[in-house]
Amino acid sequence: MTIRHAYPADLDALDKLEQQCFPPEEAATRAAFSQRLAVFPEHFWIAEENGEIVACVNGCVSDAPLLQDEMFEDAGLHNEQGAWQMLFGVETHPVVQGKGYASALMRQMIEDARAQGRRGVVLTCKQELLDFYRRFGFENEGISASQHGGAVWYDMRLRF
């Protein structure tokens, strides 16, 4: 496995992976991915196996204390000097789920955010993923105000 940051040329593969991993009402649009790649490609962590993208973690950086729904669509809210690494999505191709790709990307993203002097990492997740994020030290801050995709989300935070 190779871990790297994204390139604009990854748009097609990342869009396809997103659509495979999230229901339509929650998946980022191709346009949103294109904007993210243009503004913060260094905040995409990609796992490749045999030259194919098999997993991805991405999100902007912000001083906001919580992940806000508008961040998913407006890459202009990224602030490279922000205190918090936001995490929008953790996705692994369904064929290779359970093989440690997402965990490896999470560890790399956390290490990079710490090295960049961030205060920590913020994300929202569904109830069934709470334990996954707790393994990395995230704390559940309760049900989120997020209305993203019409799902119930939990605010999670890892403080450094």
Structural description of this entry:
- The protein has about 160 residues and is an alpha+beta fold.
- The model has no long low-confidence stretch (mean pLDDT about 95).
- The strands form 2 sheets. A 5-stranded mixed β-sheet has the order 4-5-7-9-8.
- It is globular and about 40 Å long.
- The chain has a single domain, classed as Aminopeptidase (3-Layer(aba) Sandwich).
- The chain is built from 4 helices and 9 strands; from the N terminus they run βααβββββαβαββ.
- Helix 1 (about 10-20) crosses helix 2 (about 30-40).
Give the overall shape, derived from the CA principal axes. globular
The CATH superfamily is Gcn5-related N-acetyltransferase (GNAT)
In the CATH hierarchy, the architecture is 3-Layer(aba) Sandwich
Radius of gyration: 14 Å
**Largest β-sheet summary:** 5 strands, mixed
- Residues in helix, %: 25-40%
Total E-strand runs: 9
Give the percentage of residues in beta strands.
25-35%
**Runs with pLDDT <50, length 5+?**
none
Mean pLDDT: 96
What is the count of structural domains?
1
Termini gap = 27 Å
Strand-and-helix sequence, N→C?
Answer: EHHEEEEEHEHEE
Q: Helices and strands: which structural class?
A: alpha+beta
Number of helices in the DSSP assignment: 4
